[in-house]
Amino acid sequence: MSDNKTGNSPSRRAFLRGAAAAGAGALTTSTASAQTAEPLITEVQPWAREFGDGVDAVRYGLPIEHESDVVRRNVEWLTADTVSSINFTPIHALDGTITPQGCAFERHHSGAIDLKKEDYRLMINGLVDTPLVFSYADLERFPRENHVYFCECAANTGMEWAGAQLNGAQFTHGMIHNMEYTGVPLRTLLEEAGLDTAGDLKDKWVFVEGADASSNGRSIPMEKALDDVLVAFKANGEALRKEHGYPVRLVVPGWEGNMWVKWIRRIEVTDAPVESREETSKYTDVLDNGIARKWTWAMDAKSVVTSPSPQSPITHGTGPLVISGLAWTGRGTITRVDVSKDGGKTWETARLAKEGEKMALTRFYLDTEWDGSEMMLQSRAMDDTGYIQPSKAQLREVRGLNSIYHNNCIQTWLVRSNGEAENVEVS
Amino acid sequence: MLKFPKSTVLIAASVFLSNPAFAEKLGLGRAALPEEIAAWDTDVRPDGTGLPVGSGDALIGEEIFADQCAACHGDFAEGIDNWPKLAGGADTLDHEDPLKTVGSYWPYLSTAYDYIQRSMPYGNAGTLSDDDVYSIVAYILYSNDLIDDDFVLSNETFLDVEMPNAAGFIFDDRAQAEYSQWSGDPCMENCKAEVKVTMRAMVLDVTPEETKAEETTAVVDATPEPVEEVVVEVAAFDAELAKAGEKVFKKCKSCHQIGDGAKNKSGPVLNGIFDNTAGVVDGFKYSKVMRKAGEDGLVWSETELAAFLAKPKKYMKGTKMSFAGLKKEKDQLAIVEFLKSLED
After folding, report:
1. B121: cis peptide before it, omega within 30°?
2. Nearest Cα to A157, choosing from A264, A14, A320, A302?
3. Domain A302-424 carries which CATH code?
């Protein structure tokens, strides 16, 4: 990852000013104190007089054009080429918890490949009784399950280790998505191949790899493989998207996204980890003394206010304000989220839209009144292990400044009296 | 085996207890054939398991590296632009911005072999022979001063190489180092005396802007003037030279596809590139400068192509092409002649 710190974006500021100005305008038309009757109401509008589109106008729909800014975005200076790169989910503009596939972040190591179901093969080999090959159709004949899980890249928020850098929740926290997966437990497939040959399973592993050129091989301890890992072929009810591993990907609940191997083609039962590129040179955490942590698979509890945020400023002026955000933990369920408006001096407990679900995103709201004064907005997640999301200072105290991955620090947005927000660090 | 947090151990225990009660098999799938397993099961482990019989040294590796790897990783494995640096960085891991290379960071040499044989060269993966892979790995070691140039790396000598950072890793210790500190009852009132903004993202200003409409639709009306001399150049086609150019093209093909069914990769498809306006291949996302150059009328004539390929980054500052350049004039001319032969 580059540490490029150049660049200049006057137009971004102009955009933000524009958003705030539009907000001031909106204030005059959207309140109950209109002085003159609104033509929108008193005059028959075209859409109320004429026909709309017939059915089949669009056989598979995209969001209406007015939502065309709700898209994945890339930070070009981060990587050398888009075939080995990442983009970001527009979390600042979404609500609820399910991420639509079409705007869910992508991470490729050698590009998103086109692999047809009929060309798909999954091999299970290594320390199994009978090495097997499954077709896609075979997978659909095993008993299957549905689960909602978040998938977070280990590098999410990684650019913020050394300081506030990217101005928007999409860029600071958008390497995450949350989908309902349909698939076969990995356990079922391993049992089909037979694990007697493996003997004592306690010190065994599975090595999983994809069909793309990067193959992105990773070693997963057998405990996890037999616990909740899914071999998934549907997300949010429909086929996986090409960019998320069509036709079949691995789902490794709560663990770093790099292990969720896309286009999965082979699962090998082994007696030791392979120590592949992605589990040694990458996705390991260098501490201050130069020693690196490895096998930091579980994603710790984390949260972020998605609105207001730099890309989602307050445009309605003072009065009722919904502060909204997301929380998640790879070690269980979210039990509570607190929100601070003063940079962490005082906290109020937010409302969870639904009870936390295991290894899935939880939506929180703080329904509040805004008096127009400056806020330093923070959120702090807690999970059912008793863990409390740490501040950036706390993380740095243990891990130093040289880490990239697994940054789950508390985020601060400075919201100004004009409603604009900025990514800042506070004392 | 590493220690898991207690809760995980409990789950794990229950998983293993149910071992005898494994579900009945459904009889789905078919037996994998030995040659199928051999084709896909190529992983190489730290103890050398999986290494094929073969050998190579840094001198042979240097040539292969120059052809196959240097376009992104640099002639000396020092890395170009944002592409990975494979050499250097010794003793930087405890400094600010450590340089993590094969030599300074990677704990196992097997990882390099495993990754190169399956995923490199980029855009043309899985095409290296076993001896090529040994040679490339040897060259990377040599570039990191970890072996001498007469050291022959093979399946037999592989474990003789000592990796400097082999002992530089610990297992996940968050349970001990962090979890106990960051739990309990969180503070709700008077948690800090004072809060100050200590850093602002807008000062750095590295957030991407929206692509502005005017950038993509700008000045197409400046019709490139037809250049008469180009006609002459097309007429003068040297088939022998083009054949030599095809060999030089090996340096390009990890990023550029040609011929029927060619697709844009890290670089655009090059069919019909000669004598065409710069920056116009359908569906390829060019650098701003390349797009602008095309809009300003740059046409890939013999002269322009040769100049670009000699020193891409000098010719066009800001180009996405990370290729270091063709030093020999002979190669430049040959490749231009080869590119002429590629019809759109």
Report:
1. yes
2. A302
3. 2.60.40.650
Residues of chain B found within 8 Å of residue A425, distances taken between Cβ atoms: 197-200
Neighbours of B56 (CB within 10 A): 22
* ipTM of this complex: 0.90
Span(s) in chain A for CATH 3.90.420.10: 107-293
Q: Which contiguous run of DSSP H or E holds residue A327? A: strand A319-328
The answer to whether residue B24 is domain-embedded is no
For residue B194, CA distances in Å to A223, A286, A342, A372, A425 come to: 46, 32, 9, 21, 14
Which of the listed residues B126, B160, B194 is the one where a domain comes to its end? B160
Q: What is the pLDDT along chain B (344 residues), one digit of tens a residue?
A: 344 444 444 444 445 544 445 668 999 999 999 999 999 999 999 999 999 999 999 999 999 999 999 999 999 999 998 899 999 999 999 998 899 999 999 999 999 999 999 999 999 999 999 999 999 999 999 999 999 999 999 999 999 999 999 999 999 999 999 999 999 999 999 999 999 999 999 888 888 876 433 333 333 333 344 433 333 334 467 888 888 888 788 778 777 888 888 888 778 999 888 888 999 888 888 888 888 888 888 888 888 888 888 888 778 887 878 777 787 788 888 888 888 888 77
Alpha-carbon distance of A350 to A339, in angstroms, equals: 6
- The reply to whether B40 and B132 lie within a common domain is yes
Does an H or E element contain B119, and which?
Answer: helix B109-119
- Count how many domains chain B has: 2
Chain-chain contact of A221 with B5 (C-beta, under 8 angstroms): no
Instruction: Name which of A80, A141, A284 is nearest B82 (Cβ-Cβ).
Output: A80
Distance (Å, whole) CA A312 – CA B203: 19
Q: Where are the alpha helices (DSSP H) in A31-112?
A: 39-42, 46-49
CATH node for A107-293 = 3.90.420.10
How many CB atoms sit inside 10 A of residue A200's CB? 10
DSSP H/E element including B292? helix B288-295
- Which residue in A73, A111, A133 is closest to B208 by CB distance? A73
Residues 6 or more apart in contact with residue B16 via CB below 8 angstroms? A201, A202, A223, A226
| Domain ranges, residue B146 | 35-160
In a domain, B94, yes or no: yes
Q: How far is A236 from chain B (nearest CA, A)?
A: 26
Q: Do B119 and A215 touch (CB under 8 A)?
A: yes
Residues of A in contact with B47 (CB under 8 A): 272
Contacts of B36 in chain A (CB under 8 A): 123, 133
How far lies B211's CA from each of A318, A412, B41, B284, B318, in Å?
A: 32, 27, 44, 16, 17
Is the residue at B74 inside a domain?
A: yes
